[in-house]
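quick q for whoever's on today - can somebody do inverse folding on this one?? i tried earlier but teh output was garbage lol. C-alpha coordinates:
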Protein backbone atom coordinates (compact mmCIF):
# COMPACT_ATOMS: atom_id res chain seq x y z
CA UNK A 1 0.00 0.00 0.00
CA UNK A 2 1.55 3.32 -0.99
CA UNK A 3 2.62 5.55 1.85
CA UNK A 4 0.38 8.55 2.59
CA UNK A 5 3.26 10.52 4.10
CA UNK A 6 4.32 13.69 2.30
CA UNK A 7 7.91 14.09 1.22
CA UNK A 8 9.77 16.74 3.15
CA UNK A 9 11.08 19.67 1.15
CA UNK A 10 14.46 21.17 1.91
CA UNK A 11 14.12 24.88 2.66
CA UNK A 12 16.78 26.75 0.73
CA UNK A 13 18.13 30.26 1.53
CA UNK A 14 16.41 31.53 -1.62
CA UNK A 15 13.07 30.19 -0.39
CA UNK A 16 13.60 31.87 2.98
CA UNK A 17 14.26 35.19 1.23
CA UNK A 18 11.13 34.74 -0.88
CA UNK A 19 9.01 34.05 2.21
CA UNK A 20 10.40 37.11 3.97
CA UNK A 21 9.68 39.24 0.91
CA UNK A 22 6.12 37.92 0.75
CA UNK A 23 5.59 38.76 4.42
CA UNK A 24 6.96 42.27 3.85
CA UNK A 25 4.68 42.80 0.85
CA UNK A 26 1.70 41.60 2.86
CA UNK A 27 2.12 44.28 5.51
CA UNK A 28 2.99 47.15 3.14
CA UNK A 29 0.00 49.26 2.17
CA UNK A 30 -0.64 49.74 -1.54
CA UNK A 31 -2.44 52.29 -3.64
CA UNK A 32 -5.81 50.55 -3.21
CA UNK A 33 -5.63 51.21 0.54
CA UNK A 34 -5.30 54.95 -0.11
CA UNK A 35 -7.51 55.33 -3.20
CA UNK A 36 -10.33 57.23 -1.50
CA UNK A 37 -7.98 59.47 0.48
CA UNK A 38 -5.87 60.27 -2.60
CA UNK A 39 -8.99 61.37 -4.48
CA UNK A 40 -10.16 63.47 -1.53
CA UNK A 41 -6.76 65.17 -1.31
CA UNK A 42 -6.63 65.96 -5.03
CA UNK A 43 -10.19 67.31 -4.97
CA UNK A 44 -9.49 69.53 -1.97
CA UNK A 45 -6.43 71.13 -3.55
CA UNK A 46 -8.34 71.72 -6.78
CA UNK A 47 -11.32 73.44 -5.15
CA UNK A 48 -12.58 76.47 -7.12
CA UNK A 49 -10.47 79.59 -6.56
CA UNK A 50 -7.66 77.71 -4.83
CA UNK A 51 -4.05 76.88 -5.62
CA UNK A 52 -0.81 75.86 -3.91
CA UNK A 53 1.69 77.87 -1.88
CA UNK A 54 5.14 76.48 -2.77
CA UNK A 55 7.47 77.08 0.18
CA UNK A 56 9.74 74.09 -0.37
CA UNK A 57 13.04 75.77 -1.23
CA UNK A 58 16.01 73.88 0.16
CA UNK A 59 17.82 75.37 3.13
CA UNK A 60 20.57 76.62 0.83
CA UNK A 61 18.17 78.30 -1.59
CA UNK A 62 16.03 79.71 1.22
CA UNK A 63 19.26 81.03 2.72
CA UNK A 64 20.19 82.86 -0.47
CA UNK A 65 16.80 84.53 -0.51
CA UNK A 66 17.11 85.51 3.16
CA UNK A 67 20.60 86.87 2.63
CA UNK A 68 19.33 88.94 -0.33
CA UNK A 69 17.33 91.00 2.20
CA UNK A 70 20.08 91.10 4.82
CA UNK A 71 18.89 88.20 7.00
CA UNK A 72 21.32 85.58 8.23
CA UNK A 73 20.63 82.00 7.09
CA UNK A 74 20.06 80.00 10.28
CA UNK A 75 17.52 77.36 11.20
CA UNK A 76 15.77 79.88 13.45
CA UNK A 77 15.49 82.62 10.81
CA UNK A 78 14.15 80.07 8.32
CA UNK A 79 11.64 78.93 10.94
CA UNK A 80 10.56 82.52 11.66
CA UNK A 81 10.00 83.27 7.99
CA UNK A 82 8.09 80.04 7.42
CA UNK A 83 5.97 80.76 10.50
CA UNK A 84 5.03 84.10 8.93
CA UNK A 85 3.79 82.22 5.85
CA UNK A 86 1.83 79.42 7.51
CA UNK A 87 0.16 81.65 10.12
CA UNK A 88 -1.12 84.20 7.59
CA UNK A 89 -4.76 84.92 8.50
CA UNK A 90 -7.31 83.35 6.13
CA UNK A 91 -4.57 81.59 4.18
CA UNK A 92 -6.93 78.72 3.36
CA UNK A 93 -9.37 80.99 1.54
CA UNK A 94 -7.34 80.74 -1.67
CA UNK A 95 -4.72 78.08 -0.81
CA UNK A 96 -5.60 74.38 -0.80
CA UNK A 97 -2.12 73.00 -0.14
CA UNK A 98 1.37 74.13 0.87
CA UNK A 99 4.52 72.34 -0.29
CA UNK A 100 7.10 72.14 2.50
CA UNK A 101 10.79 71.30 2.66
CA UNK A 102 11.66 68.36 4.95
CA UNK A 103 12.95 70.67 7.70
CA UNK A 104 9.71 72.67 7.60
CA UNK A 105 7.50 69.58 7.88
CA UNK A 106 8.92 68.99 11.38
CA UNK A 107 9.07 72.63 12.55
CA UNK A 108 6.71 74.45 14.92
CA UNK A 109 5.66 78.00 15.74
CA UNK A 110 7.42 79.88 18.53
CA UNK A 111 4.53 78.75 20.77
CA UNK A 112 5.25 75.10 19.99
CA UNK A 113 2.37 74.33 17.62
CA UNK A 114 3.52 72.12 14.71
CA UNK A 115 3.30 73.82 11.31
CA UNK A 116 1.36 70.78 10.08
CA UNK A 117 -1.35 71.45 12.66
CA UNK A 118 -1.41 75.18 11.84
CA UNK A 119 -1.92 74.42 8.15
CA UNK A 120 -4.58 71.77 8.73
CA UNK A 121 -6.41 74.18 11.03
CA UNK A 122 -6.50 76.71 8.19
CA UNK A 123 -7.82 74.14 5.72
CA UNK A 124 -4.47 73.90 3.94
CA UNK A 125 -3.11 70.39 3.29
CA UNK A 126 0.63 69.94 3.97
CA UNK A 127 2.78 68.62 1.13
CA UNK A 128 6.44 67.67 0.92
CA UNK A 129 9.29 68.05 -1.57
CA UNK A 130 10.78 64.55 -1.94
CA UNK A 131 13.40 64.80 -4.68
CA UNK A 132 17.06 65.19 -3.72
CA UNK A 133 17.96 67.82 -6.27
CA UNK A 134 19.57 68.00 -9.70
CA UNK A 135 22.93 66.56 -10.70
CA UNK A 136 24.95 66.95 -13.91
CA UNK A 137 24.15 64.27 -16.49
CA UNK A 138 27.20 62.41 -17.78
CA UNK A 139 27.91 62.56 -21.53
CA UNK A 140 25.56 65.46 -22.07
CA UNK A 141 25.82 69.10 -23.04
CA UNK A 142 25.27 70.37 -19.51
CA UNK A 143 21.90 68.68 -18.91
CA UNK A 144 20.71 67.46 -15.50
CA UNK A 145 19.05 64.47 -13.89
CA UNK A 146 17.11 64.35 -10.62
CA UNK A 147 18.16 62.27 -7.59
CA UNK A 148 15.93 60.78 -4.91
CA UNK A 149 14.44 57.41 -5.86
CA UNK A 150 16.67 55.46 -3.46
CA UNK A 151 14.82 55.08 -0.17
CA UNK A 152 11.87 57.10 -1.45
CA UNK A 153 9.20 54.60 -0.35
CA UNK A 154 10.45 54.60 3.23
CA UNK A 155 10.72 58.39 3.31
CA UNK A 156 7.20 58.79 1.91
CA UNK A 157 5.83 56.48 4.61
CA UNK A 158 7.43 58.68 7.28
CA UNK A 159 6.21 61.90 5.66
CA UNK A 160 2.67 60.52 5.61
CA UNK A 161 2.92 59.69 9.32
CA UNK A 162 4.07 63.26 9.96
CA UNK A 163 0.97 64.62 8.21
CA UNK A 164 1.96 65.21 4.58
CA UNK A 165 -0.76 64.33 2.08
CA UNK A 166 0.84 65.19 -1.24
CA UNK A 167 4.34 65.40 -2.66
CA UNK A 168 6.43 67.18 -5.27
CA UNK A 169 9.33 66.07 -7.48
CA UNK A 170 10.97 68.62 -9.78
CA UNK A 171 12.93 67.52 -12.81
CA UNK A 172 14.03 69.88 -15.56
CA UNK A 173 14.45 70.03 -19.34
CA UNK A 174 16.87 72.56 -20.83
CA UNK A 175 16.30 73.71 -24.40
CA UNK A 176 19.72 75.39 -24.92
CA UNK A 177 21.55 72.34 -23.54
CA UNK A 178 19.54 69.82 -25.58
CA UNK A 179 17.14 68.45 -24.97
CA UNK A 180 18.72 65.07 -25.62
CA UNK A 181 16.67 61.90 -25.85
CA UNK A 182 18.36 60.39 -22.79
CA UNK A 183 17.64 63.47 -20.66
CA UNK A 184 13.98 63.52 -21.65
CA UNK A 185 13.52 59.80 -20.99
CA UNK A 186 15.32 60.00 -17.66
CA UNK A 187 13.11 62.94 -16.63
CA UNK A 188 9.89 61.12 -17.58
CA UNK A 189 10.87 57.76 -16.08
CA UNK A 190 11.98 59.31 -12.79
CA UNK A 191 8.74 61.24 -12.44
CA UNK A 192 6.67 58.12 -13.16
CA UNK A 193 8.52 55.96 -10.62
CA UNK A 194 8.22 58.70 -8.02
CA UNK A 195 4.47 59.08 -8.71
CA UNK A 196 3.82 55.35 -8.32
CA UNK A 197 5.77 55.22 -5.05
CA UNK A 198 3.96 58.25 -3.64
CA UNK A 199 0.50 56.88 -4.38
CA UNK A 200 1.40 53.64 -2.64
CA UNK A 201 2.31 55.67 0.45
CA UNK A 202 -0.86 57.78 0.47
CA UNK A 203 0.61 60.91 -1.09
CA UNK A 204 -0.84 62.60 -4.17
CA UNK A 205 2.15 63.20 -6.48
CA UNK A 206 2.72 66.51 -8.22
CA UNK A 207 4.40 65.70 -11.55
CA UNK A 208 6.77 68.51 -12.55
CA UNK A 209 8.96 68.32 -15.66
CA UNK A 210 9.94 71.98 -15.82
CA UNK A 211 10.90 73.39 -19.21
CA UNK A 212 13.47 75.97 -18.13
CA UNK A 213 13.08 79.58 -19.25
CA UNK A 214 16.82 79.85 -19.98
CA UNK A 215 17.58 80.52 -23.65
CA UNK A 216 16.88 82.60 -26.73
CA UNK A 217 14.35 80.18 -28.25
CA UNK A 218 10.94 81.40 -29.38
CA UNK A 219 7.52 80.26 -28.19
CA UNK A 220 7.15 77.73 -31.02
CA UNK A 221 10.31 75.91 -29.92
CA UNK A 222 9.02 75.81 -26.34
CA UNK A 223 5.72 74.38 -27.59
CA UNK A 224 7.58 71.63 -29.49
CA UNK A 225 9.77 70.61 -26.54
CA UNK A 226 6.91 70.78 -24.03
CA UNK A 227 4.77 68.56 -26.26
CA UNK A 228 7.56 65.97 -26.51
CA UNK A 229 8.23 66.09 -22.77
CA UNK A 230 4.62 65.58 -21.72
CA UNK A 231 4.13 62.78 -24.27
CA UNK A 232 7.08 60.91 -22.75
CA UNK A 233 5.90 61.65 -19.22
CA UNK A 234 2.41 60.24 -19.74
CA UNK A 235 3.79 57.17 -21.51
CA UNK A 236 5.88 56.33 -18.46
CA UNK A 237 3.07 57.21 -16.03
CA UNK A 238 0.89 54.65 -17.84
CA UNK A 239 3.73 52.09 -17.83
CA UNK A 240 3.96 52.46 -14.03
CA UNK A 241 0.17 52.08 -13.56
CA UNK A 242 -0.12 55.51 -11.94
CA UNK A 243 -3.72 56.53 -11.23
CA UNK A 244 -4.11 59.63 -13.38
CA UNK A 245 -7.19 60.89 -11.52
CA UNK A 246 -5.11 61.04 -8.34
CA UNK A 247 -2.15 63.13 -9.50
CA UNK A 248 -1.54 66.84 -10.08
CA UNK A 249 0.62 68.38 -12.78
CA UNK A 250 2.98 71.32 -12.36
CA UNK A 251 3.95 72.43 -15.86
CA UNK A 252 5.75 75.49 -17.12
CA UNK A 253 3.68 77.89 -19.16
CA UNK A 254 4.56 77.79 -22.86
CA UNK A 255 6.35 81.02 -23.65
CA UNK A 256 9.56 82.24 -25.27
CA UNK A 257 12.96 81.83 -23.65
CA UNK A 258 14.02 84.55 -21.22
CA UNK A 259 16.51 85.99 -23.74
CA UNK A 260 14.25 85.78 -26.79
CA UNK A 261 13.87 89.27 -28.28
CA UNK A 262 10.30 88.56 -29.38
CA UNK A 263 8.05 88.63 -26.33
CA UNK A 264 4.56 87.14 -26.11
CA UNK A 265 1.34 88.57 -24.76
CA UNK A 266 -0.70 86.91 -22.02
CA UNK A 267 -3.24 85.76 -24.61
CA UNK A 268 -0.51 84.17 -26.76
CA UNK A 269 0.99 82.33 -23.79
CA UNK A 270 -2.47 81.11 -22.77
CA UNK A 271 -3.28 79.92 -26.28
CA UNK A 272 -0.01 78.01 -26.78
CA UNK A 273 -0.09 76.52 -23.29
CA UNK A 274 -3.67 75.27 -23.47
CA UNK A 275 -3.22 73.88 -27.00
CA UNK A 276 -0.20 71.91 -25.83
CA UNK A 277 -1.89 70.58 -22.70
CA UNK A 278 -5.13 69.64 -24.48
CA UNK A 279 -3.10 67.56 -26.93
CA UNK A 280 -1.27 65.69 -24.16
CA UNK A 281 -3.11 65.67 -20.81
CA UNK A 282 -6.10 63.33 -20.28
CA UNK A 283 -9.21 64.99 -18.79
CA UNK A 284 -9.06 62.49 -15.90
CA UNK A 285 -6.20 64.52 -14.41
CA UNK A 286 -7.84 66.75 -11.76
CA UNK A 287 -5.51 69.73 -11.73
CA UNK A 288 -2.91 71.72 -13.66
CA UNK A 289 -0.99 73.77 -11.07
CA UNK A 290 1.36 76.04 -12.98
CA UNK A 291 4.80 77.00 -11.76
CA UNK A 292 5.84 80.63 -12.19
CA UNK A 293 9.38 79.76 -13.25
CA UNK A 294 10.81 83.25 -12.73
CA UNK A 295 7.91 85.18 -14.25
CA UNK A 296 7.06 88.44 -12.52
CA UNK A 297 4.31 88.47 -9.92
CA UNK A 298 2.06 90.32 -12.35
CA UNK A 299 2.76 88.21 -15.44
CA UNK A 300 2.23 84.93 -13.60
CA UNK A 301 -1.22 86.14 -12.54
CA UNK A 302 -2.14 87.67 -15.91
CA UNK A 303 -1.20 84.47 -17.79
CA UNK A 304 -3.20 82.31 -15.38
CA UNK A 305 -6.19 84.61 -15.69
CA UNK A 306 -6.02 84.45 -19.50
CA UNK A 307 -6.08 80.63 -19.39
CA UNK A 308 -9.29 80.67 -17.37
CA UNK A 309 -11.36 82.83 -19.71
CA UNK A 310 -13.03 79.70 -21.09
CA UNK A 311 -13.79 76.27 -19.56
CA UNK A 312 -10.95 73.73 -19.33
CA UNK A 313 -11.03 69.94 -18.87
CA UNK A 314 -9.08 70.32 -15.63
CA UNK A 315 -8.75 72.75 -12.71
CA UNK A 316 -6.20 75.27 -14.05
CA UNK A 317 -4.47 77.00 -11.15
CA UNK A 318 -1.14 77.91 -9.55
CA UNK A 319 1.67 76.44 -7.48
CA UNK A 320 3.80 79.54 -7.00
CA UNK A 321 6.78 80.27 -4.78
CA UNK A 322 8.55 83.48 -5.77
CA UNK A 323 5.43 84.83 -7.51
CA UNK A 324 3.63 84.75 -4.16
CA UNK A 325 6.50 85.47 -1.79
CA UNK A 326 8.87 87.92 -3.47
CA UNK A 327 7.34 91.13 -2.08
CA UNK A 328 6.44 89.36 1.18
CA UNK A 329 10.08 88.55 1.91
CA UNK A 330 11.31 92.04 0.99
CA UNK A 331 8.70 93.61 3.24
CA UNK A 332 9.54 91.41 6.24
CA UNK A 333 13.35 91.45 5.89
CA UNK A 334 13.74 89.84 9.30
CA UNK A 335 11.75 92.51 11.17
CA UNK A 336 8.98 90.89 13.22
CA UNK A 337 7.26 94.28 13.48
CA UNK A 338 6.57 93.88 9.76
CA UNK A 339 4.95 90.43 10.03
CA UNK A 340 1.35 91.66 9.81
CA UNK A 341 2.14 93.86 6.79
CA UNK A 342 3.94 91.02 5.03
CA UNK A 343 1.09 88.61 5.76
CA UNK A 344 -1.44 91.04 4.30
CA UNK A 345 0.65 91.15 1.11
CA UNK A 346 0.77 87.34 0.98
CA UNK A 347 -2.99 87.08 1.42
CA UNK A 348 -3.55 89.63 -1.34
CA UNK A 349 -1.23 87.70 -3.68
CA UNK A 350 -3.13 84.47 -2.98
CA UNK A 351 -6.40 86.34 -3.56
CA UNK A 352 -5.15 87.74 -6.89
CA UNK A 353 -4.27 84.28 -8.09
CA UNK A 354 -7.41 82.73 -6.65
CA UNK A 355 -9.38 85.23 -8.72
CA UNK A 356 -7.19 84.38 -11.74
CA UNK A 357 -8.09 80.71 -11.26
CA UNK A 358 -11.70 81.77 -11.67
CA UNK A 359 -10.81 84.03 -14.62
CA UNK A 360 -11.80 87.12 -12.62
CA UNK A 361 -8.50 88.85 -11.84
CA UNK A 362 -8.72 92.65 -12.20
CA UNK A 363 -5.27 94.08 -12.93
CA UNK A 364 -6.58 97.62 -12.41
CA UNK A 365 -7.24 96.95 -8.73
CA UNK A 366 -4.04 95.34 -7.56
CA UNK A 367 -0.70 96.56 -6.23
CA UNK A 368 1.13 93.48 -7.54
CA UNK A 369 4.80 93.90 -8.46
CA UNK A 370 5.68 93.67 -12.17
CA UNK A 371 9.45 93.21 -11.70
CA UNK A 372 10.85 90.08 -13.32
CA UNK A 373 12.32 87.34 -11.10
CA UNK A 374 14.11 85.17 -13.64
CA UNK A 375 17.33 83.58 -12.33
CA UNK A 376 19.57 81.62 -14.67
CA UNK A 377 19.98 77.93 -13.79
CA UNK A 378 17.65 78.37 -10.80
CA UNK A 379 18.04 75.65 -8.16
CA UNK A 380 15.52 74.72 -5.46
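ok took a stab at it. sequence:
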Amino acid sequence: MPSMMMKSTRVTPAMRRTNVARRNVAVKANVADFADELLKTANHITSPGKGILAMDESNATCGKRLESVGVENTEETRRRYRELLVTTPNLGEHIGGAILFEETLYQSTKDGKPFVDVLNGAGVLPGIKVDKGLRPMCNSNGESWCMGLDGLAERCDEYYKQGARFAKWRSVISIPDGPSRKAMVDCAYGLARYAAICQNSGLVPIVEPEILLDGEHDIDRTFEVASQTWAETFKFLEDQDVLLDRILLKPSMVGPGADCPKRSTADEVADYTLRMLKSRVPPAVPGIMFLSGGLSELDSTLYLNAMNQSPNPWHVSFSYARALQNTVLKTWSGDDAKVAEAQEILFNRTKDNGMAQLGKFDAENTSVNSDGMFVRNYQY
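fwiw The beta strands are 51-55, 95-100, 125-129, 134-136, 144-146, 166-173, 204-211, 248-249, 287-290, 315-320. also The two ends are 77 Å apart (CA to CA). so keep that in mind when u check it
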